[in-house]
């Protein structure tokens, strides 16, 4: 007789992140996750002491994937600094998986200081990358900081805006904003 295989730890974390993205931290409940995974909740305790341990593992995974893995991929794929900035933004804020998690964590951080501290660390690392890359083509430290902040605000804020752009599409306006931030000349299509 073969013993039943336990649901891997990563599946609990992944389902927790998926649930966080759609329902917020209050929706991340052990019983509900077990049901979605099609398992009993008993296997959960082989990996996690409690729900808080799962939440911390979820935050660890989000931080690693949205910062460490993104930076590693940006560096390994190479390119000039402007290409790297664009790639990092696309990997983080256009990703169908990472973006909803990031936005849910931002909302969660408004109510939980420990999560806010984690978010600050992640955002500071992201800003450091922007400063470094923008600093390669812009020498004024004040302008580097302003461009970095604008780039970051556009990357996040664009997902919350319900504004219309006249006869322009959102992607067209975002592309033009990127041209301005990255000091690229606007080329007609």
TrEMBL record:
InterPro entries the record matches: Homeodomain-like_sf, HTH-type_TetR-like_transc_reg, HTH_TetR
Swiss-Prot/TrEMBL keywords: DNA-binding
Residue ranges for the DNA-binding region feature of this UniProt entry: 29-48
Matches recorded under Pfam families: TetR_N (PF00440)
Statement: the UniProt record of this protein carries the keyword DNA-binding: yes
Gene3D superfamilies, sorted: Tetracycline Repressor, domain 2
MF term (GO), any: transcription cis-regulatory region binding
Residues of the HTH tetR-type domain: 6-66
Superkingdom of origin: Bacteria
Name of the protein this chain belongs to: TetR/AcrR family transcriptional regulator
Organism: Kribbella sp. HUAS MG21
Lineage: Bacteria, Bacillati, Actinomycetota, Actinomycetes, Propionibacteriales
């Amino acid at each position: 007789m073969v013993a039943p295989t336990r649901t891997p730890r990563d599946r609990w974390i992944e389902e927790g992140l998926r649930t966080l993205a759609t329902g917020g931290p209050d929706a991340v409940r052990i019983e509900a996750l077990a049901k979605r995974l099609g398992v009993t909740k008993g296997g959960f305790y082989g990996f996690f002491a409690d729900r808080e341990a799962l939440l911390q593992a979820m935050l660890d995974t989000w931080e690693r994937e949205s910062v460490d893995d993104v930076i590693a991929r940006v560096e390994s794929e190479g390119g000039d600094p402007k290409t790297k900035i664009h790639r990092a933004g696309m990997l983080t804020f256009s990703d169908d998986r990472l973006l909803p998690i990031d936005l849910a964590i931002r909302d969660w951080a408004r109510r939980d200081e420990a999560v806010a501290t984690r978010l600050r660390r992640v955002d500071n690392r992201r800003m450091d990358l922007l400063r470094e890359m923008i600093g390669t083509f812009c020498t004024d430290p004040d302008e580097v900081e302003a461009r970095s902040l604008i780039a970051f605000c556009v990357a996040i804020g664009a997902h919350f805006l319900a504004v219309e752009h006249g006869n322009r599409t959102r992607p067209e306006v975002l592309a033009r904003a990127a041209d301005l931030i990255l000091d690229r000349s606007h080329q007609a299509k």
